[in-house]
Amino acid sequence: MKTRAAVAFEAGKPLEVTEVNLEGPKAGEVLIEVKATGICHTDEFTRSGADPEGIFPAILGHEGAGVVVEVGPGVTTVKKGDHVIPLYTPECRGCPSCLSRKTNLCTAIRATQGQGLMPDGTSRFSTLDGDPIHHYMGCSTFSNYTVLPEIAVAKVREDAPFDKICYIGCGVTTGVGAVINTAKVEVGSTAVVFGLGGIGLNVLQGLRLAGADMIIGVDLNNDRKEWGEKFGMTHFINPTEIGEDIVPYIVNMTKRGADQIGGADYTFDCTGNVKVMRQALECSHRGWGKSVVIGVAPAGAEISTRPFQLVTGRQWLGTAFGGARGRTDVPKIVDWYMDGKIQIDPMITHTMPLEDINKGFDLMHHGESIRGVVIY
């Protein structure tokens, strides 16, 4: 069949909206009509050429929602007509990682997924001339139709709006999950969130959901103060306006009652800046502070701190997809949204047709959007 897609033919070039060929699903695969897809910084990281694992040409996009159109042989967990969210972190429930229950990083299809291919080592996409086009993060939601492995789709309720729940395919789950699954924040905790973009705002609402008490947001853009307050932030810091290093500033700010050591119980980096990652760790509490790295740093970047910071009990944690097990947890997060426990609508600041997808990237670059969504 043919489908319209926004193709990244070369690194650093705008996406080209064009018609491509899409082969139907093989054994263990499903064909999905994508109804809506978010434009995420990770897509831009690859499009720009900064991603060392980026492969071209490719159809980017990994934050989508749609409807199953066709299933291949052997598919049993979804059927035609089911509403689904594609999963860039699959859940096979049978590999050593899934069975360990210690990680959400399923390894069943990791090798081929990283090569931009389906599990059988081939691509379902090609140009009209027959040249292969790579898949992206196993999803390729910048195409109106896409094919995914059965283990990489989460079946969700049918009354949830596609243009909102697509955001659960990455940003919402990553931010909220980092709080609930990775940090395991307790009621009454103090927390700091560095970077109040699409991920950071979801960390904020995850902290509110978890019952954190003092929730500090840090951003260079004062416009994010109002945004942060909408999602549970209690205090805001612009590091350029405090007149001192931010680490001792936060340590002093978080001294409460008999605790005169100070430091946040939990900190979260949503910037991808390795200097900020260090600051986030060092302003966490001596003895028990946990700092979660969410932001993706540039290729070759390294984080560093004095060993003393770790010897005295602080912990650095990493998280991918918020530690969520896709097929199990994503439907629950959709329920949270539909039940009003978390917000999504305010963060969808711009919607557009596929033809305007490059404008969506421009809005993201200029800091004018929290999340732009393409509606097919």
Residue stretches low in confidence (pLDDT < 50, at least 5 long) are none
Please trace the helix and strand order, writing H or E for each element.
EEEHEEEHHEEEEHHEHEHEHEHEHEHEHE
CATH homology-level superfamily of the largest domain:
Medium-chain alcohol dehydrogenases, catalytic domain
**Number of separate strands:** 18
Counting structural domains, the number is 2
The separation of the N and C termini measures 17 Å
Shape: globular
Give the CATH topology of the largest domain: Quinone Oxidoreductase, Chain A, domain 1
**The first-level CATH class name of the largest domain:** Alpha Beta
Helix residue percentage: 25-40%
Work out the strand percent.
15-25%
| Count of helical stretches | 12
Indicate the radius of gyration in whole angstroms: 21 Å
Q: Main β-sheet: number of strands, strand sense, barrel status?
A: 7 strands, mixed
Topology:
Elements: E1 2-8, E2 16-22, E3 29-39, H1 41-47, E4 58-59, E5 64-71, E6 83-86, H2 96-100, H3 110-114, E7 125-126, E8 132-133, E9 145-149, E10 153-156, H4 162-165, H5 171-183, E11 190-194, H6 198-210, E12 214-218, H7 224-230, E13 235-237, H8 246-253, E14 266-269, H9 274-282, E15 290-293, H10 307-311, E16 315-318, H11 326-338, E17 348-352, H12 357-365, E18 371-375
Parallel strand pairs: 11-12, 11-14, 12-13, 14-15, 15-16, 17-18
Antiparallel strand pairs: 1-2, 1-4, 2-7, 3-5, 3-9, 3-18, 5-6, 6-10, 7-8
Helix pairs in contact: 5-6
